[in-house]
Structures are given as C-alpha cells and as structure tokens.
C-alpha cells in the first residue's frame, strides 16, 4: 500500500514523505534565518527610537520623583509648623492656667486675712 502511485489516491510512499519533510525543514531553516535577519535589521532601525522613548521615560520618572520630594518636603514643613503651633498653644494655655491659679491663690489669701 505504501508504494502506490500518487495518482491512485493512495498514501505516498515513505520516501516521498521523507523528501517532503526534508523540503519543509529546508524552508523552515531558510525562513528562520530570514526572520532573524529581518528582526535584527528592524531592531537596529528602531534602536534610536527605543532609546529616545527610554530617555523620555527616564526624564518623566525624574520629574515625578522631584515633584514627590517637593510635596513630601511641604508636608513635613506643615507638620513641623502644626507641631510648633500646638506647642505654642499648650505653652500659652499653661501660662494662662498658671496665672489664673496664682490669681486664685492670691484672692483666697486676701479673703483669709480679712
């Protein structure tokens, strides 16, 4: 059966199949080399564009990092200012309470002497 002719509609012989496989391998090897050459050429052509895009990305990241540092610095300054204001209010409240306490003690001492 395997040795039947092609015109009979029967399967090809093993030798015909091996020849077809060899032709396919040869074409795949040729195509693979062509694809590799084409890909290398395209990569070389696109390399400047890729480098430019990477430079743009790096500049954008640097800009964002600078902006983030600035915002963080502003936030730290606001926290420091808020902490200083809270400390001043506490000092003022403490001095006011101390003054009120001294006044009350003086009032009670005056009333005790009367």
Automatic annotation (TrEMBL):
Coiled-coil annotated spans: 14-74
Bias type Basic and acidic residues, positions: 81-92, 102-114
Region (Disordered) residue spans: 81-114
Record keywords: Coiled coil
Protein name: Uncharacterized protein
Organism, scientific name: uncultured Thermomicrobiales bacterium
